[in-house]
């Protein structure tokens, strides 16, 4: 579902994940084969549905000690397939009439491959479809399965009755069944107006699960109106939204004091984890002896907070930059370093950090793979740590890929302290403030084109020794990169990887012109003359930087 949900969102399609809450936790199956079949079916549904919804449903038809018969079905609200064409839709290169071929080009071949894979699992694809209503492709498969008795059930605290507000009836039903598993009653409202009526009538709820995308009145406006109806009651709200709304949603939620959000389609473990957070965040308000702590008291508490922070970053320059910024914000924090994704997963399990800053491009495991491994471990233990992606990439859809992998947020490199402050505020509810930094003093315009020393020093808290240390590391790594670019001119993957690394270092060290040249290397078509010309410019630029650093920093440390 995560692989296709962003394609669906572009078409304003609702994606529903309807997994029976009582299903066994573990199955013995060829994972790649099963995924290929399901992704094929969901992808077809998104492709041929113009409005409405797509639903992946998994339920158990029969469960015995030795095996469970599962039914996987993918339902859409597309145009449907006529009865006389339903048999032909599975035939290779024979898709009914010309109009069907035009409409479903390539689908027959994909479905035939899916059917072939299912045959290896002693199953077959079946279809129910009505013109103007939609289609459901489904298959039954018998698998060895087991429940997981060790899975930790999150405590849902005092939550007994929740209001579900969503214009999609199927989604309301799915959420209701999930809540029922934890013995939580629920009422439903199909619109913002209906939810307001229920609140006005005096109904009391422990929390509200509010969909953002609704006609007439969206979820945020509904919350705004509820606050006007019952201004004396701070109603806990979980907002359901698509990750493509993230930047706008974050600002609005902050204004409305909505602290918990859930990306659609809602997954059961994520829902329960979010409900647990909703309960736990209310505890400080009850125990707080001083309802109006001063800014100084807040800051003292934050400075004394001993958080454990994991930074996964293979680039020594970026690691030093991130550490220095975090230490400036949280002097008492314990910082754990991991130089690749594999180590990041291991140290996460061992150290149990409060937040993770995760680089995307790393050896062993990349950031996406590491995040998914962490989320899989958390699923077994009922925990959830915020993961903030760090990337110098600008590729379209990169933010969405981070969300698909289970990350919570995204910071573009080069990192700035404001972005890290915002991450602490957003995900740990810490209103952090950096130590006071003197104002920047202007530098010579001619050198700023090449190297913004003032900006780098400012980002490092005006700490000259730390700035010099970062420059030393940066220049050493840059020299290695230049050498490796020459060695890998004929190896495209290695060449582009080194160029990307060079750009990341240059951005972090505020080597502005070098960063531009590295970006050009990343985009080159590997023409030898073009590469050689760019490398000459890179070497000349490195020479300018080396000369300035040697002249201004080494002879006179106090400058």
Structure, described:
With 559 residues, the protein is of the alpha/beta class. Helix content is 48%, strand content 17%. The protein has 23 helices and 16 strands. The protein has helices spanning 5-10, 31-47, 83-86, 98-103, 107-120, 169-181, 192-200, 219-229, 246-256, 268-280, 283-287, 295-304, 316-329, 341-351, 367-381, 398-404, 417-427, 445-448, 453-459, 464-487, 492-508, 512-523, 528-552, and strands at residues 14-19, 26-28, 53-63, 68-76, 126-130, 134-146, 161-165, 185-189, 207-211, 237-241, 260-263, 308-312, 334-338, 355-359, 387-391, 409-412. The strands form three sheets. Strands 1, 2, 3, 4, 5 and 6 form a six-stranded mixed beta sheet that branches. α16 (398-404) links the parallel β15 (387-391) and β16. α21 packs antiparallel against α22 (512-523). The longest helix is centred in the last third of the chain and has 25 residues, at 528-552.
The gist of it:
This protein has 559 residues and is α/β, with parallel strands linked by helices.
Domain module count: 4
Helix content: 40-55%
The tally of helices reads 23
Q: What's the overall geometry?
A: globular
**Head-to-tail CA distance between termini:** 57 Å
What is the mean predicted local confidence, pLDDT?
81
What is the radius of gyration computed over CA atoms, rounded to a whole number of angstroms?
A: 27 Å
Structural class: alpha/beta
**Total beta strand runs:** 16
Reading off the top of the CATH hierarchy, the class of the largest domain is best stated as Alpha Beta
Unreliable spans: 92-109, 282-304, 436-446, 555-559
CATH architecture of the largest domain: 2-Layer Sandwich
CATH topology of the largest domain: Heat Shock Protein 90
Question: How much of the polypeptide forms β-strand, as a percent range?
Answer: 15-25%
Largest sheet: 6 strands, mixed
Fourth-tier CATH superfamily name of the largest domain: Histidine kinase-like ATPase, C-terminal domain
């Amino acid at each position: 579902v995560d692989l296709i949900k962003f394609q669906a969102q572009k078409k304003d399609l609702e994606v529903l994940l309807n997994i029976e809450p009582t299903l066994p936790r573990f199955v013995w199956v060829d994972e790649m084969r099963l995924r290929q079949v399901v992704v094929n079916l969901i992808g077809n549904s998104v492709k041929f549905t113009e409005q409405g919804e797509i639903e992946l449903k998994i339920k158990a038809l029969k469960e015995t000690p030795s095996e469970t018969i599962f039914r996987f079905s993918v339902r859409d609200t597309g145009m449907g397939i006529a009865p006389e064409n339903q048999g032909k839709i599975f035939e290779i290169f024979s898709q009914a009439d010309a109009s069907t071929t035009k409409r479903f080009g390539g689908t027959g071949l994909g479905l035939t491959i899916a059917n072939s894979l299912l045959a290896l699992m002693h199953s077959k694809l079946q279809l129910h479809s009505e013109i103007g209503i939609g289609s459901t492709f489904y298959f039954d498969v018998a698998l060895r399965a087991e429940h997981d008795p060790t899975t930790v059930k999150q405590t849902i605290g005092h939550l007994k009755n929740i209001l579900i507000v969503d214009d999609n009836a199927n989604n309301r039903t799915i959420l209701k069944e999930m809540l029922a598993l934890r013995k939580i009653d629920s009422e439903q409202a199909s619109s913002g107006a209906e939810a307001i009526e229920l609140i006005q009538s005096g109904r009391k709820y422990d929390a509200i699960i509010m969909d953002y995308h609704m006609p007439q009145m969206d979820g945020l406006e509904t919350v705004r109106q509820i606050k006007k109806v019952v201004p004396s009651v701070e109603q806990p709200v979980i907002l359901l939204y698509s990750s493509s709304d993230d930047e706008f949603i974050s600002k609005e939620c902050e204004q409305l004091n909505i602290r918990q959000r859930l990306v659609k389609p809602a997954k059961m473990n994520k829902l329960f984890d979010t409900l647990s957070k909703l309960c736990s965040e209310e505890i400080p308000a009850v125990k707080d002896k001083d309802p109006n702590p001063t800014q100084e008291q807040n800051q003292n508490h934050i400075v004394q907070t001993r958080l454990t922070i994991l930074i996964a970053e293979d680039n020594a320059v970026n690691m030093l930059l991130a550490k220095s910024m975090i230490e400036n914000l949280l002097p008492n924090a314990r910082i754990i370093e991991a130089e690749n994704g594999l180590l990041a997963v291991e140290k996460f399990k061992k150290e149990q950090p409060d937040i993770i800053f995760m680089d995307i491009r790393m050896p062993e495991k990349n950031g996406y793979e590491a995040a998914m491994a962490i989320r899989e471990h958390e699923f077994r233990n009922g925990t959830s740590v915020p993961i903030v992606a760090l990337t110098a990439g600008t590729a379209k859809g990169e933010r969405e890929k981070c969300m698909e992998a289970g990350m919570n947020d995204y910071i573009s490199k080069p990192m700035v302290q404001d972005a890290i402050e915002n991450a602490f505020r957003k995900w740990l509810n810490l209103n952090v403030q950096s130590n006071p930094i003197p104002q920047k003093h202007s530098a010579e315009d001619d050198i700023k084109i090449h190297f913004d020393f003032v900006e780098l020093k400012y980002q490092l808290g005006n700490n000259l020794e730390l700035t010099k240390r970062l420059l030393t590391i940066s220049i050493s790594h840059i020299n290695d990169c230049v050498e490796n670019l020459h060695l890998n001119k004929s190896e495209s993957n290695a060449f582009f990887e080194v160029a990307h690394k060079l750009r990341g270092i240059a951005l972090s060290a505020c080597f502005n012109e070098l960063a531009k040249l590295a970006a050009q290397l990343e985009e080159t078509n590997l023409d030898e003359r073009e590469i050689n010309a760019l490398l000459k410019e890179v070497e000349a630029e490195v020479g300018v930087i080396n000369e300035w650093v040697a002249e201004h920093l080494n002879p006179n440390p106090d400058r």
